[in-house]
Write a structure and sequence with these properties.
Length: 102
């Protein structure tokens, strides 16, 4: 696209510790494909956004595995950075369910 000025990519990875600092050996991760499609369509229609692509690694994951890739392409960083931040936050809150394995 002639309007494309930047692409940002987020890569979430399984850590060896929970948010609370407890050691984990992995996680079980599931997501709602319908809700993800609705979210990417909603955010993709924002001014200055050219495209949004998301891949989520569903199933049993071990330390170091990729959890997800989220890509936001757009015209200016002032449009792209906030959309990437909102996309990742909302995926974590609204789209995925995860269970750490201790």
């Amino acid at each position: 696209s002639k309007d494309l000025g930047m692409i940002l990519v987020h890569n979430g990875i399984v850590r060896a510790t929970s948010k609370e600092g407890t050691a984990v050996i992995g996680m079980n991760l599931f997501y709602d494909r319908e809700k993800l499609a609705i979210l990417t369509e909603e955010l993709g229609s924002r001014d200055g956004i050219v495209a949004i692509k998301v891949w989520i690694n569903q199933g049993t994951l071990k330390i170091g595995d990729d959890i997800m890739y989220a890509l936001v392409a757009g015209r200016f960083r002032t449009s792209v950075f906030p959309v990437l931040e909102e996309l990742v936050s909302r995926i974590k809150k609204e789209i995925v369910s995860e269970e750490e394995i201790f």
